[in-house]
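re: the backbone from monday

yeah here it is again, tokenized this time
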């Protein structure tokens, strides 16, 4: 039975993965356009970020779409096929789970941020500057 489930889920993954990638490609979001100076400022911020991910993981696709939508240039590493990246994720973040955003601050300290929703929130609230047209409004409780 265990054997059946193992291969059943592998099969589901093999079928669903390419379908997700196809859907992602067909409905790929258009990136926001900013003034060149503003984009350069954001590029300087995103140079300190690295996204560890699997190509067909739905949570990674969600983060990659947010990255595309906000026109962020963030280096991605494949933690499934690339054994060096996989090891970096395990040693740095503590577990093989994707997506994971490696954040290096100005002092060189690193934080490994897991959870797609938290990663997107970090990008939208910390990386995209206030006043940018694509930044979602900050909701105030009770309003
Ligand atoms: N709640 C997480 C789910 C992430 C998740 O389940 N990722 C899967 C790949 S699709 C994973 O890393 N699995 C490996 C594991 O859990 O060991 C998120 O939104 O990021």
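seq for it, each position gets an aa:
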């Amino acid at each position: 039975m265990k054997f059946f489930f193992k291969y059943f889920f592998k099969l589901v993954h093999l079928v669903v993965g390419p379908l997700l990638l196809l859907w992602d490609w067909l409905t790929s979001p258009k990136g926001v356009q900013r003034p060149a100076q503003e984009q350069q400022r954001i590029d300087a911020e995103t140079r300190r970020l690295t996204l560890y991910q699997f190509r067909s993981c739905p949570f990674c696709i969600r983060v990659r779409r947010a990255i595309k939508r906000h026109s962020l240039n963030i280096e991605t590493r494949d933690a499934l096929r690339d054994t060096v990246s996989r090891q970096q994720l395990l040693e740095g973040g503590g577990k093989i789970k994707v997506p994971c955003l490696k954040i290096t601050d100005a002092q060189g300290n690193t934080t490994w941020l897991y959870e797609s929703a938290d990663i997107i929130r970090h990008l939208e609230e910390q990386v995209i500057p206030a006043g940018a047209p694509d930044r979602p409004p900050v909701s105030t409780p009770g309003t």
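Residues 2-26 form the longest helix (25 residues). The chain is about 50% helix and 15% strand.
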